[in-house]
Structures are given as structure tokens and as C-alpha cells.
Amino acid sequence: MPLPIEQLLRDYISRPGYKPEKAKPLAKALGIKKQRFEEFKEKVDQLVAAGTLGRTESGKIIAGKGLLKGAASSGRQIVGTLKRTAAGDGFVLPQGANREHHNVEIFIDSSQMRDAQTGDTVLVEFMAERMGGGRRMGRIVEVVERASTTFVGVYYEDDGQAWVMIDGKQFADPVWLGDPGAKGAQPEDKVVIDMVRFPTPHRHGEAVITQVLGARGEPGVDLLTIIHEFGLPTEFPEAVLAEAREKALTIDEEVFVDREDLTNETIITIDPVDARDFDDAISLHRTDDGHWHLGVHIADVSYFVTPGSPLDVEAKRRGNSVYLPRHVIPMLPEVISNSLASLQADHVRYTLSAFIEYSPEGIPVHTRFARTAIKVKQRFAYEQVMPIINNPKKATDVSDEVLKLLLDMFELAMILRKRRFAKGALELSMGDIELEIDKEGRVTGAHEEHDDESHQIIEEFMLAANVAVATFLDDRGDEFVRRVHADPSEMKMKAFGEFAASVGHPVKQVQSRKELQALLEKVRPLPEGRAVNYALLRSLKQAVYSPEVAGHYALAEDQYAHFTSPIRRYPDLLIHRQLIGRITGTRTYSVPRGAELAQVAQHCSDTERRAEQAERELKKIKLLEYLYERISEEFDATVTGVDRYGFFCRGNTMPAEGLVHITTLRDDIYDYDRAGHCLTGRRSGRTIRLGDPVRVAVARVDIDRRELDLRLVEGPGPSTRRSSGPKKSGSKPGRPRPSKGSNSGPPREKGRARKRRGH
């Protein structure tokens, strides 16, 4: 029988009209006395961990999975997250529910939307009627928590009044600002606003200007736009900077206590040519019995960032570093990230090392961990490594010891890689295109990046260290932040199997990683190879941080955690503290447990997604600015998505993604096949499928709404007119305007080299 506090919580939160509250006011509303408040908080944490209750980012207590199931069956109210469509309607995903489950989202008609926006946490009341297929319908009772009240847009004046047209497609109409000239804003300026009253179908929104970023289209304004739009923290508080400076005074390169001295070992780093935060280094040697002895040495950030300190609080808030084109927003102040903790050559640096012994066949036989001090002998860029390995006799600028280390690293890494794929690991071949950006931040071109074996060397060793650490902690029964990649749903994999069969590559057991691996290898050189890779990517789930024991599907590993990048990822820092606590036996390095650990993991997943979205949006803006002066130019592309209203495609050498709307396909009437990821012409039988090569032309560019409309020039199959990218128009870059090009078809409905390590 539930404890009294638990029963009180269940009854109160599941009743109709419950308005989510934080712990203290909720306890007061339930009549919990002060002396029982700690017991109350502990019970709330337990119920959150169990999924019975949930907690918003601001700490408000809401119904979780357990209460939601009962609420849904009895026709009551539920709390969920709203996603609006371009038409103004929306869908609410209940807290704790899985979007992949059939009809789990609740449809909200635009007339029942109130002033809720995409991303808001909302309270929904079920309606009696249902949609076709049985999907529930509802009305929004209130907004529990706003996803954001800060937005960026273009300022303009009309009839003596000031307005802002907010970037993107979230708001269809301008928002009223009142009298002109606030903060010195001029027409066509980009401004940051705080929404005072959100718009509804019956009234304009109201806002106030909080900052003027500069004239639209001026260098640097696009970067500021993204920073404010996503709420990316930039400046560090003075207390954080002061603590970082103090830490700089504690480093003694001559004397170090309680650390293994590895400063005379041959240790190297391999990183992108423009990297500044070197957080991993490698040592390796073989013994007479043929065994390999690998050392993966990771910057000991925990030495500088202690639990609860200003540095720790800020690092946790940021969650990770953010890598934007030509700009990095670090998780830690640069005096630490680019200096004190960075494993620079010829400097003593504190590290946490994973020592893994392998048999000659690459089977791990022993692992240990230690706090160490190292001195990197030589730094390499990726581009330097393979020429040395392929032609060791011409390597005159490296010592014999370093040369032997590189050759041994290559040999072991290839052994580990072969074993990993034999175990069932998956690797998609999608290609990676890097933008070329000038000193004013404008795109001038692009080039395809090729990851050679030098990247694979480091990747294999980082994966090995991550697995070793996770296995070590799991063997001791520890709860920790894992890197989880859950198995794909049967429904999605069944659909993928049907798609693969439709392009001539049936898969007998679509849930078998080895069969998928064989399929990917088979289609790698084939024209339909890109289509199969895209389809499989869309069938897989995203990797997240979680304390749940769920394994890593793509890596075919039961135990996996992020350990190798604590300079730029907070979960890695937590793993370091937990590992040091284990190997030293001190509680100084304790980490969160239970519901608190789950919250930190979720927060880090959220900040990771935010960083990815910010990078993607800034690249999109820069590409749209580039294409704005290139209307009607043609380029080769690949179909990346198919829907009932058309298909999306991405340039092969200029990675802009746009929509070819179905209404512009005038040669036939096309039907949409969801399972086959394709559009098929009724008369011609012509098929446009996910992954198909096409040739398209730029039809319309709207930078502020971030839309690119394309026109199909030549359909699937080899094009008779090839070029490496858009034809040169000779036009000079001009100041971007909101939209340029034809208006055919309705609107769309839908820096630096990164260290891509750790999955």
C-alpha cells in the first residue's frame, strides 16, 4: 500500500485542473509540515526516477508515465510537449511517452491552441471525439512552461508603429513592439525581443526589444542571431574566471603528488590541424609475449573543476562546448580548455589514464586506471599521419621511437577495428562536406572531407577506452551516466526492410546487425548505396545520456560511456570523478545518484541537441546567403527525404538542403509511398526515391524564414550535365533580403573541424 505522501501526490497531481508547481509550493498545497519536507522531496525524487512523476526544466512537478496512462484511459488531463505544424495545428507528446508508439500524440486543432508554441510544456484536456484511426484530440488548457520567451527577428516600422518579424516559421505574423526607436533600432536591424504576450489566432503578439544585434546581412550578425536564438551562454561569470586563474597558480611541472610519472614515456597526440583543446594522447608498446599495452591518456579536468565549485556549476549549465562555423563556445574558460588542461607538446600535463593489455589478436586481457602526469613528445595533425605510416623511410622529421609508435598504433587499431565489425558494429557511409568560409564569415565554397585511417586509429582507441571504463564501473555495480543508443523499433526496422527489398536488396533478418552490416558493405559502391544508408539512418534512434542499462546498438556494446573528452563534455567529467573515486577510495569525487543523476543526464542530452541544432541553423543561414545570389543555378543533389508534399534534397558538393514541392512536378501526378520512401508517377511510373541522384535548380531563397525551394531539372539516374557545384553567375554578394526567386508552390511544411570521437 502506498505511503501517505505518495498517495497524496498521486491523487493531487492526477486530478483534473492540476497546475504544475515546484516542490515547496506543492508540499504546502498538500499540507506537508516543515519537518517532513526532506521526506517529501525524497519521495518526489523516487517517483520521478520510477517514471510515475516528471519534472520540467524549471523544476515543476508533473505527471509521469504511470499517472498518464490512467489519465488517458479516464479522459482526464495530461501534460506534454507541443509541436505545431505550418498550418497552425499541432500535436502534443505526453510526458514520458514514446513518439514511435502508434497514435500516442494528441492532435490539437488551431482553434484549440490558445497561445501555445512549439516546445512549450502544456496542459491538455482530452476531447470526446477522435480523429480517423483512433487518434485522441484535445484542447490546450494552459501553458505550463514556455520553451522560450526570447526570439530574434527583423525590425521594421509601419504607420508609426514598430514591429518585428521573427525568424523562422514559428510565427506567421509580425509581433507588435509599440513606439518606434527602442534601443536605437533601425529598420532592417536584427533585434532580440522578449515576448510579453504571445500571439493567438485572434490577436497580435506583443514584445519588447532587449538588444539590437546590427543590420541584417552584416558580417557576424548571423552568429549573434543563433547565439541569442538558442540561448547559448557566451561570457563566463567573473567568479568562474577568477577560479580558473587561481587554478593556473597550482600547476607545478616539476613536482606532482599521487600521480604516476609518465613524462619520459613516448606519448603523442593526433588531432584536427586547427584544434586547440587537446584532450587525449596515446602510448603503446609490445612485450616479448606479443601482447599490446595501450595507454589512453585523457586530460584530468577533474583536477581543475571540483564538485560544486563555480567552474563546476557553469560547466554543468553549459553541458558541452558548442562548435559553430569559425567560432567555438567552450564549456570551460580558455585558460583551462586551451591551456592548463590541454595536452600540449613538451608541457607536463595531468591526466587520467586507461591502460589496456591486449593479446596479439586484440582481445583485452587486463585493464587498469591511474592518475598520471605526461609530457607529449610530438603533436600530429590527422593529415600528417598516413604519409608517415605509408612511407616510413621518408619520415625524417620524427624520431625512431615516435615512428615505431605510429606504426604500432596503426597495426593495433586495424586489429581492433576488424574485431569490432566482426562483433556487429555498424558504420554508415554518408559523406561529410566542410564549408569554406572567408574572414567575414561568408561561404565561398565547400569541399568533401575524407576520414582516412589516421582518424580510425584514434577512433578505435577512444572507443576502447570508453568501453573499458563503462565495463569497470558496471562490474562494480555503480550507477553512472552511460552513452545509450537504444535498439531501433521493430516497426521502423520492418519498414526499412521493405524499403531495402524495394531497391533490390532484401534482408532476411532486419534486426540482425551482421546482416545490416553486410548490406551496407554490399551497397557501398552501388548507385542505390546512398539511399540505403539514408533509410537506415532514419530508422535508428538518437544516442542519449542516461543511467539506464540499455547498451549501444550501433557499436554492438553492452557497456558504453563517454570518458575521452572532459574538456568539452560534462558527462565525461562526471565519469572521471566516479573513476577517480573508485581508484583512490575518496568521496571527494562523488557524483549524483538516482533521480538527480537522471536529471543531469537528460540535461546533457538536451544541451547536446541544442548545440547540434545551433550549428545546423547557422550553416543553413550561411548557405542561404550564398545561394541568394544564385537563383536559377543548377547543381547535382541527393534526395534526403520524401513526403506527400514533395521531396527534400541536399547538394552533393554544396550541402544546402531544400524542398522540391510536388506541385512543381508538372509532368505527372505523383503518389506518396511511405514504406518505400518514394513518389511514383501514375502515368509514367517514374519513381523519386530516398537517396536518388537528381539535378535541381535554385527556385526561391528566404533567409529569414530559412527556406530553400528547388526545382527539379533532371530526375533520378545519371545526369547528362554534371558540374562540381553551382555554375558561376558572376553576381556580387549583396545584402540579403527576406526572399528571392519564384513563388511557385506553397511554402515548406516542414568552423572548425570537429573531433568526431566517442559516438
UniProtKB/TrEMBL annotation:
<dbReference type="Pfam" id="PF00575">
    <property type="entry name" value="S1"/>
</dbReference>
<dbReference type="InterPro" id="IPR011805">
    <property type="entry name" value="RNase_R"/>
</dbReference>
<dbReference type="Pfam" id="PF00773">
    <property type="entry name" value="RNB"/>
</dbReference>
<dbReference type="InterPro" id="IPR004476">
    <property type="entry name" value="RNase_II/RNase_R"/>
</dbReference>
<dbReference type="GO" id="GO:0008859">
    <property type="term" value="F:exoribonuclease II activity"/>
</dbReference>
<dbReference type="InterPro" id="IPR050180">
    <property type="entry name" value="RNR_Ribonuclease"/>
</dbReference>
<dbReference type="InterPro" id="IPR022966">
    <property type="entry name" value="RNase_II/R_CS"/>
</dbReference>
<feature type="domain" description="S1 motif">
    <location>
        <begin position="632"/>
        <end position="713"/>
    </location>
</feature>
<dbReference type="InterPro" id="IPR003029">
    <property type="entry name" value="S1_domain"/>
</dbReference>
<keyword id="KW-0963">Cytoplasm</keyword>
<dbReference type="InterPro" id="IPR013223">
    <property type="entry name" value="RNase_B_OB_dom"/>
</dbReference>
<dbReference type="InterPro" id="IPR001900">
    <property type="entry name" value="RNase_II/R"/>
</dbReference>
<dbReference type="InterPro" id="IPR040476">
    <property type="entry name" value="CSD2"/>
</dbReference>
<feature type="compositionally biased region" description="Low complexity">
    <location>
        <begin position="721"/>
        <end position="733"/>
    </location>
</feature>
<dbReference type="Pfam" id="PF17876">
    <property type="entry name" value="CSD2"/>
</dbReference>
<comment type="similarity">
    <text>Belongs to the RNR ribonuclease family. RNase R subfamily.</text>
</comment>
<feature type="coiled-coil region">
    <location>
        <begin position="597"/>
        <end position="624"/>
    </location>
</feature>
<protein>
    <recommendedName>
        <fullName>Ribonuclease R</fullName>
        <ecNumber>3.1.13.1</ecNumber>
    </recommendedName>
</protein>
<comment type="function">
    <text>3'-5' exoribonuclease that releases 5'-nucleoside monophosphates and is involved in maturation of structured RNAs.</text>
</comment>
<dbReference type="Pfam" id="PF08206">
    <property type="entry name" value="OB_RNB"/>
</dbReference>
<dbReference type="GO" id="GO:0005829">
    <property type="term" value="C:cytosol"/>
</dbReference>
<dbReference type="GO" id="GO:0006402">
    <property type="term" value="P:mRNA catabolic process"/>
</dbReference>
<keyword id="KW-0269">Exonuclease</keyword>
<keyword id="KW-0378">Hydrolase</keyword>
<keyword id="KW-0694">RNA-binding</keyword>
<feature type="region of interest" description="Disordered">
    <location>
        <begin position="712"/>
        <end position="759"/>
    </location>
</feature>
<keyword id="KW-0540">Nuclease</keyword>
<dbReference type="GO" id="GO:0003723">
    <property type="term" value="F:RNA binding"/>
</dbReference>
<keyword id="KW-0175">Coiled coil</keyword>
<dbReference type="InterPro" id="IPR012340">
    <property type="entry name" value="NA-bd_OB-fold"/>
</dbReference>
